[in-house]
Amino acid sequence: RIKAEGRNGYRFFDVTMQQEAQKRWQLEEGLYKAVERNQLEIWIQPQVSNEYVITGAEVLLRWRHPEKGMISPMDFISVAEESGQISAIEEWVLEESLSLLSRWQATNLPSTFRHLSINISPSHFMQADFIQRMLPILERYPVPGINIEFEITENLLINNFKQAIETMQVLQEKGISFSIDDFGTGYSSLRYLNQLPINVLKIDRSFVSGIANLDDDAPIIDVILLMAKKLNLEVIAEGVETQIQHQFLAQRECSLYQGYYFSKPMHHRDFFNLLMQDNGVINTPSDYV
Ligand code: C2E
Ligand code: MG
Ligand code: MG
Ligand code: MG
């Protein structure tokens, strides 16, 4: 009896595994061609102040697949990391973003827009030639007055603290700043906050979404904001979807936000239009439901 079930079980398991492996392999193969076929797109989400001024933005990658439609980075970044393609892809992201930005600067960008964040995968960041490969790109597209920030995650720091700090210091001297993305969800030693050249903590969306139900995450946000203040770090609240969440955060002296309440990520062309439209101000935030 057990044997018979086992056989069925195995068969089912095999098929699922095979389908998963095949899907992954297809993504991996497709990704190799995605850059040269112009299938990767720079999308951008505004970061705003309490006055709804767009003070900065985050670059978020999208893959427009000819058959599968738009593919989320949640579905292909890990594939890119495991297949070793992430470095080439993120070099493209940096180059494309800076090139856009320098073209935009030829117009009269609102002077309140001062900042662009780019996500860097831990496996890319820890490559021995990370600095050597990124610096020439940064030097090729000077964007005076705009601060370029690399978003890294806490997990990067677990095994590579020494190397990470060295890399960060070199880049900091070249004008790059750093933020901790998804703060509060990863490796949670507080020691690194004081030792690394970090400027910004991005409060993870999971804490912000807890605000609506007034559940246990409210005190966590209090603590993060207080700690950031003591350590002289800026805070960006991620995933703000409602006015209630915004008000809760604003009452606690949070000053920067990123979330659907203000704006979803959009194609870089739309972002540029938004920026130019009302002098870089978002006029009508509305609850995301
Ligand atoms: P992330 O860096 O934490 O970026 C924020 C994510 O939260 C984005 O998802 C954004 O669309 C989403 N988000 C922002 N506001 C809200 C909100 O109010 N509600 C909800 N439900 N979501 C919100 P997205 O664009 O799907 O990207 C997912 C993740 O993919 C990013 O999370 C980042 O970790 C990764 N990613 C994107 N582009 C890159 C890249 O160029 N390199 C690397 N290594 N990772 C990237
Ligand atoms: Mg990010
Ligand atoms: Mg995040
Ligand atoms: Mg993330």
TrEMBL record:
Residues represented out of the complete protein: 393 to 681 of 681
Domain of life: Bacteria
Protein name: Phytochrome-like protein cph2
EAL domain sequence ranges: 24-279
Leader sequence residues: none
